[in-house]
TrEMBL record:
Taxonomy of the source species: Eukaryota, Viridiplantae, Streptophyta, Embryophyta, Tracheophyta
Gene3D superfamilies (alphabetical): Glycogen Phosphorylase B
Keyword Amino-acid biosynthesis in record: no
MF annotations from Gene Ontology: glycosyltransferase activity
Transmembrane segments: 70-87
Comp. bias regions, Polar residues: 25-38
Name by which UniProt lists this protein: Glycosyl transferase family 1 protein
Length: 734
């Protein structure tokens, strides 16, 4: 029995020893090897403490940084450098308050230049006490005294000088060239950005500067371009070609002239029709960058390799000026196969632009022009230089945008039940009366307007010399009297000058002129205008009661008629006013502006008639207030003249040069009057101004015919239908 118990104890001890061994020690036991008694594995095996976890398997993620001090120092240096650059950039851009919170002070606030530091937080306006930190001491006083007030002014003036010193250099330089000093007038450019001190509100050389009238437009019309832009015609051919395609548009500059504005509206239409647009701007000259950003047009800052890569990926490249030849040449040198995707929409018509671009005219896919005269001129130059074009050029004239068509009362995509075409006509008449009142114009003033960059090619000086002839009564209307067919349509009626006064007592014509006069001035509330409309109505009743001739009227009616005509003779006389724009434009020529100012200073009669307006995109109010538009382009004439169709859409007769695109748009003696270019046109332009000044009925009738022509040929859908044909020849249809 004892032997059995001993065997059981031995068997139990053996099992307990086997249970104590770990799996790792089992291998050594099976292999016949055993660990020495003093070795580390033996001590770990026979110890009663809990074994430690493996450091490699359970190491923290920060152990690497603790063991690598070089990496830790690099991270600290990077963080310190980032904070330093951030503070420096804030200080360099004039944000001194944020920099001072971190511990940096601006130059204007340094201790070596000022004895005291006055901050906005040190003023307690509620208690009327001012806390001033002066040399480390806090002083509380109700009266700062003259010394501390002087210090405060010095601090604010130095801060303003430091933050705006660089931005004002260019403005001061331009003011010196123009010969005027800033008087704090606020000027709005065509993008809506305000610049202070650029143009004086009133100057002895300029005279009166009016506008812009953006706030007046918004208050009267109840609508602005910020609320909604033109929508695409999804059913048209243009939208079918543009949808899901990518385009790159090349702007030669961002000035407020015809080419950049047309390219900007093209980009807006491409985006509206579902395309992707990237703009490459060769020169940031001008102020349209904010307008491009507002419309969601992406502008590429790089004009080299990055722009080339973007153009290579695009479906089509559209260059909007002959000045883009430099970029096209570099792009084709970088990517010769890209010539099959370039449409060159040339908007200039001078030989200097042809000479700079003639080397690559035959390397692009398609040339596009604005008018027939421009196309013929460029093809003639190509024949002289033996240049063979790959395809026949196409013509895509400009159009009236939806924003202006909406204000004029022409049906467009912006019309809604609340803003119908009829309601916009009424609002336009209210806008006309309000703007003319702000300009200081009366009911008998005829405003002749010319809006363009001021340079010799636009002919503003020649236009003013024609106005001088009218102001000094040195114009004769014998030419119009000799032309019988023209005189029958538009009889000559003048007051207080040397020409013969002829009055045609035709009831239908007088009633038509009365109706037009009531539409044009129906919103004026002056006593003189009410009295004149009452006399017009009475005159029409007298003529309608007889047989429409002066001999068939009774003696009483003849006496009343003579009294009405004699009373209205002085009131119906029209006075000339001239509006010139656009001041502050980047395309103005300083020397040419100075020559105009010298002309005005020499003739006080002319300077009293001239008004000036700054450059602005809010031109609807100016067109609404005007009566006649003059486009006096010289040389080969205007390439197209977008302002011409804009003026015609507002019902204004156009007086233009008999050259270029103006000859194609303006029909002589129908929608306006044409005159020769150069000095020969001064006398003829003066006669045309005097004729329209003396004949309001002819002025209104020409304006209505011009408006009708715009509706038939120069609306947005007309332009993009032509552009769709260009895309059909240049793009691969999916």
């Amino acid at each position: 029995m004892e032997e059995i118990n001993n065997k059981a104890d031995l068997h139990g001890n053996a099992l307990r020893l086997l249970a104590i061994r770990t799996p790792g020690s089992m291998k050594s036991t099976l292999s016949g090897k055993s660990s020495p008694r003093n070795s580390a594995p033996y001590r770990r095996l026979h110890t009663n403490r809990t074994p430690r976890k493996d450091s490699k398997a359970y190491s923290s993620k920060f152990d690497y940084l603790r063991g690598n001090r070089v990496v830790l120092w690099l991270l600290l240096i990077t963080l310190w450098a980032y904070i330093g650059f951030h503070v420096q950039s804030k200080w360099a851009h004039g944000d001194h308050r944020k920099a001072e919170l971190i511990g940096y002070k601006s130059k204007a606030g340094s201790a070596d230049k000022m004895e005291s530091t006055v901050t906005a937080e040190n003023f307690n306006h509620s208690s009327g006490e001012n806390l001033v930190v002066l040399k480390g001491k806090n002083l509380t006083s109700k009266n700062l005294g003259h010394t501390l007030a002087k210090k405060l002014k010095e601090v604010s003036s130095k801060q303003k000088q430091n933050t705006t010193k660089k931005s004002n250099r260019r403005l001061v330089r331009r003011l010196r060239k123009l010969g005027g000093k800033p008087k704090g007038a606020v000027v709005e450019d065509r993008t809506g950005v305000l610049e202070v001190g650029l143009i004086p509100r009133k100057n002895t050389s300029y005279g009166m500067i009016v506008g812009p009238f953006g706030k007046t437009e918004d208050s009267i019309l109840g609508w602005s371009t910020d609320k909604r832009r033109g929508t695409c015609d999804r059913k048209g051919e243009f939208a079918r070609f543009v949808w899901s395609r990518s385009f790159v548009l090349i702007f030669h500059e961002l000035s407020m002239t015809g080419a950049p504005l047309s390219m900007m509206e093209l980009a807006t239409e491409l985006l509206s029709c579902g395309g992707t647009v990237s703009a490459i701007v060769l020169s940031m000259k001008g102020g349209l960058i904010t307008e491009l950003d507002r419309r969601g047009i992406r502008v590429l800052r790089d004009r080299a390799r990055f722009s080339f890569r973007t153009a290579m990926k695009a479906d089509l490249i559209i260059a909007g000026s002959a000045v883009c030849s430099s970029w096209i040449d570099q792009y084709l040198a970088h990517f010769p196969a890209g010539s099959s995707k370039i449409i060159w929409w040339i908007m200039e018509n001078r030989r200097e632009y042809f000479d700079r671009s003639k080397g690559i005219l035959s390397r692009v896919k398609m040339l596009t022009f604005l008018s027939e005269s421009q196309s013929k001129q460029w093809l003639t130059w190509c024949e002289e230089e033996h240049i063979h074009l790959t395809t026949q050029p196409m013509i895509v004239p400009l159009s009236l945008n939806d924003e202006l068509a909406f204000v004029t009362g022409i049906p467009c995509s912006l019309n809604t039940p609340a803003f119908s075409a009829e309601s916009m006509l009424e609002k336009r008449n209210i806008l006309r009366a309000a703007v003319r009142k702000e300009m200081g114009l009366g009911d008998n003033d005829m405003l002749v307007m010319s809006l363009s960059s001021i340079n010799p090619t636009k002919g503003q000086r020649l236009f003013l010399e024609s106005g001088l002839l009218v102001a000094e009564h040195n114009v004769s209307l014998e030419v119009f009297e000799k032309n019988r067919s023209f005189a029958e349509n538009f009889p000559v009626v003048t007051h207080q000058n040397k020409t013969i006064i002829t009055v045609e007592l035709n009831s239908s014509r007088i009633s038509q002129s009365i109706k037009q006069d009531n539409v044009q001035q129906g919103n004026t509330t002056s006593a003189a205008s009410k009295k004149r409309r009452w006399k017009h109505t009475k005159l029409a009743n007298i003529l309608s009661s007889g047989n429409h001739t002066s001999n068939s009227l009774t003696r009483g009616d003849q006496r009343k008629l003579r009294n009405l005509l004699s009373d209205s003779k002085g009131q119906e006389e029209q006075h000339l006013k001239i509006l010139i724009g656009s001041l502050g434009s980047k395309s103005n020529k300083v020397l040419y502006v100075k020559s105009i100012l010298r002309l005005l200073s020499q003739h006080s009669n002319l300077s009293k008639l001239v008004l000036w307006t700054p450059a602005t995109t809010r031109v609807a109010s100016l067109y609404a207030a005007a009566d006649v538009y003059v486009i006096n382009a010289q040389g080969l004439g205007e390439t197209f003249g977008r302002v011409t169709i804009e003026a015609m859409a507002f019902g204004l007769p156009v007086l233009g040069t008999d050259a270029g695109g103006t000859r194609e748009i303006v029909e002589h003696k129908v929608t306006g009057l044409l005159h020769p270019v150069g000095w020969q046109g001064i006398q003829v332009l003066g006669q045309n101004i005097q004729y329209l000044l003396s004949n309001p009925s002819a002025r209104n009738e020409m304006g209505m015919l011009g408006r009708k022509k715009v509706q038939e040929k120069y609306l947005k859908n007309h332009m993009y239908n032509r552009f769709a044909k260009v895309l059909a020849k240049c793009m691969k249809i999916k």
